[in-house]
Design a protein that fits this description.
The protein is of the alpha+beta class. Helices cover 53% and strands 17% of the residues. It has 17 helices and 18 strands. The chain has helices at 2-21, 45-52, 170-205, 208-214, 217-226, 229-233, 238-264, 267-270, 272-290, 298-327, 331-354, 362-439, 446-477, 490-499, 532-548, 579-582, 605-615, and strands at 25-26, 33-38, 64-66, 72-80, 89-94, 100-107, 115-119, 136-139, 148-156, 161-168, 486-489, 507-513, 516-517, 527-530, 553-562, 565-571, 619-626, 629-637. A 6-stranded mixed β-sheet has the order 13-12-15-16-18-17. The longest helix is centred in the middle third of the chain and has 78 residues, at 362-439. The two termini are 81 Å apart.
């Protein structure tokens, strides 16, 4: 335990020492400096040093920052011995967008030569002692007789001037660089995948909202340039590319941030004039001001951009507040609308700090990074919510479209059905009318009279069958079909159902039980508990179908028991059913193709027959389909008489 405690104490002390070493020193906040302006850029090191040592020079303790200017600046500071801890220091020069930085140093009080280092976007390679995304110079340990280093900077830039030299102990720098790189990898990885998701959603949904979310990658790319990644990853052309991207993305920062709330609040439809103003502002200023990069007009372009987009931001913010207050949109729209405005506020403060209107604070830059990340996460969450809403709307639209299509199809089939019913009813009615007309002739031929009576009876039964089929279909469609089971003879029911069909002289009807032809006097065990009225309709429809689609021959009916079920089979001697018609054979209003249109009907028979079979707990299926004929089979469960009255279809 003592050894373990000693190890833990050692690690604790070591972590404290690293924490102390990890705290860098900055020239400005930690180490004071004096500064002098070189308006024409004509000072040399000696003349600039004399002015820096003049009594009028006032030491400053803030980060060096100046507005857009063409002047060069000289800074002088002293690095005391206490900063070195007996070893060399590594000086990290930030930010990455300064064109020219000259570093001179020598021991304090020495008249010896100055050590000279050059860095910046215009510097030739190498621009650093270390291969890192920011320039890093090694300041050697102090000689034994020196109290410190005298250090002088010369800085010049076409844009804003900002200089943050930071002094590190080597071990602390390596630790901080590793931690910073890991954080930046996560940070920019999140930005990459979020932007990729936004672009993908924009392509899929063709929505301006997701393209506006993808535009938020602009500030991330600007941040990557400010962090020096372009110059580091592409050493030969990276500094020029980084300089151009930094200048261009600074101009495009406001449009990238404003686009998301504009689309989220649907300013295009709610405030069309403001939307046109925003579009014109973005388009014209982006195109016109972008050509100012690399020219002396660039500082003025930045000032114009700041004023114009500050006014535009206020107008959009006022419109957003008005819309949110009056129309009360959902929470996702509120967050998506107000999030970019927070980013705009921080960005605007950053611009003011570079113009020396407000003091520069490194904390502001850190807050800008975190607000940017929080805004991207917020936007992606809200975008996913919007995707879910659009998906639900699309599904609802599809369901509505499907319902409308079904409704149109139902109306079409209804009209078709009514036409076919009228046609079907006309034939038996014509038979009845003709026979009645003949009866009115008062013939004395009893045989002819009996034949006419039989034709009237068959026509009447046919009308009843058609009517019952239509009524059964209506009851089935309304889900109100109740099976009223009774004790009936299936063979007698088959005979009764077949009698409803007008069998021509070319057809013959045969009935068997378990494959044996039925003798009228031979008893058979064919008692079943079924709804005889419904089952008569179902069987007569199948028999009628067999007669209509068979030119001639035997129609064979058979009743049998097998595996606890009644099996009612009806076979014909037709030419079979076309393969393409089998799949829809039992659908409502489905009819087999007949090129000569010689078969009448309206496609309800087999559909109603199957539904009646299913209402009994059974099934109707096509078991055989050959060029020599078809076989349709009803399979019905055998219901015990004790629960026959409780069975429902």
């Amino acid at each position: 335990m003592n050894k373990a405690a000693w190890v833990l104490a050692t690690l604790w002390l070591w972590s404290l020492s690293l924490a102390a070493l990890a705290t860098p020193l900055q020239i400005g906040p930690d180490i004071a400096y004096t500064v002098v302006q070189d308006p024409q850029g004509s000072y040399n090191l000696d003349s600039a040093r004399q002015r820096l040592l003049a009594p009028a020079s006032v030491p400053q303790r803030q980060v060096f920052a100046r507005d857009y200017t063409t002047a060069a600046y000289w800074l002088r500071s002293v690095l005391p011995r206490s900063a070195f801890h007996g070893s060399a220091l590594w000086m990290e020069i930030k930010p990455s967008f300064v064109d020219d930085v000259q570093l001179f140093y020598r021991p304090l009080g020495s008249d010896g030569p100055w050590q000279h280092r050059t860095t910046g976007d215009n510097a030739r390679m190498p621009r650093s002692d270390l291969d890192y995304r920011f320039p890093v110079f090694v300041i050697p340990a102090l000689p034994a007789d020196a109290s410190g280093y005298e250090i002088i900077f010369r800085v010049a830039n076409r844009g804003p001037l900002l200089l943050r030299p930071t002094l590190w102990q080597p071990a602390a720098f390596v630790s901080d660089a590793a931690r910073s790189s890991a954080w930046q990898a996560f940070y920019f990885g999140l930005a990459f995948f979020s932007t990729l998701a936004a672009v993908t959603l924009g392509l899929v949904f063709k929505s301006r909202l997701f393209w506006s979310v993808a535009a938020l990658a602009g500030p991330y790319l600007l941040l990557a340039c400010l962090e020096g990644y372009a110059a580091w990853l592409v050493p030969q052309a990276g500094r020029w590319l980084q300089d151009m991207l930094t200048a261009a993305l600074t101009l495009l920062l406001y449009p990238c941030l404003l686009w998301a709330p504009v689309e989220a609040l649907d300013i295009r439809h709610r405030r069309p004039r403001l939307y046109r103003l925003f579009g014109i502002t973005c388009g014209l200023f982006a195109l016109l001001l972008i050509f100012s990069i690399g020219t002396d007009f660039y500082p003025n372009a930045i000032r114009i951009q700041t004023v114009v987009f500050a006014a535009t931001s206020l107008a959009l913010f006022w419109a957003a507040i008005h819309i949110l207050r009056n129309e009360r949109p959902d929470l996702s729209t509120v967050l998506l609308s107000l999030g970019p405005f927070a980013m705009l506020a921080v960005s605007f403060l950053g611009m003011l700090s570079l113009r020396e209107i407000v003091p520069y604070r490194l904390t502001l830059y850190t807050v800008w990074q975190y607000v940017l990340m929080a805004n991207m996460l917020l936007v992606m969450v809200v975008a996913l919510i919007q995707v879910r809403k659009q998906r639900q709307q699309a599904l609802a639209s599809q369901r509505l479209e499907a319902d409308l299509r079904i409704e149109r199809e139902a109306r079409f089939r209804q009209r078709q059905f009514l036409g076919m019913v009228a046609h079907e009813f006309r034939t038996p009615m014509a038979v009845i009318s003709a026979c009645l007309a003949n009866l009115n002739a008062q013939t004395d031929d009893r045989a002819a009279l009996r034949k006419r009576h039989e034709r009237i009876a068959r026509a009447t039964d046919r009308l009843v069958q058609l009517t019952d089929t239509c009524l059964a279909d209506a009851r089935l469609a309304a889900d109100r079909l109740l099976v009223d089971r009774r004790d009936v003879s299936l063979t007698a029911l088959m005979t009764s159902a077949a009698s409803l069909v007008d069998v021509s002289d070319r057809h013959s009807w045969r009935l068997s039980f378990a494959g044996i032809d039925i003798d009228d006097d031979a008893p058979v065990n064919d008692r079943a508990f079924v709804d005889d009225a419904l089952l008569r309709i179902a069987i007569s429809n199948v028999v009628d179908n067999a007669v209509k689609y068979t030119a001639g021959g035997r129609i064979q009916g058979d009743v049998s028991r097998a595996n606890g079920h009644w099996r009612i089979a009806i076979a014909d001697a037709g030419h079979g059913i076309a393969a393409q018609a089998v799949a829809t054979l039992f659908e409502r209003f489905s009819r087999m193709p007949q090129p000569e249109h010689t078969v009448r009907g309206f496609g309800l028979g087999l559909h109603v027959s199957r539904q009646i079979a299913r209402a009994h707990g059974g099934e109707l299926a096509l078991e055989r389909n050959t060029p020599q004929g078809c076989l349709f089979v009803f399979t019905l469960p055998i219901v015990d008489s004790s629960r026959a009255h409780d069975a429902l279809g």
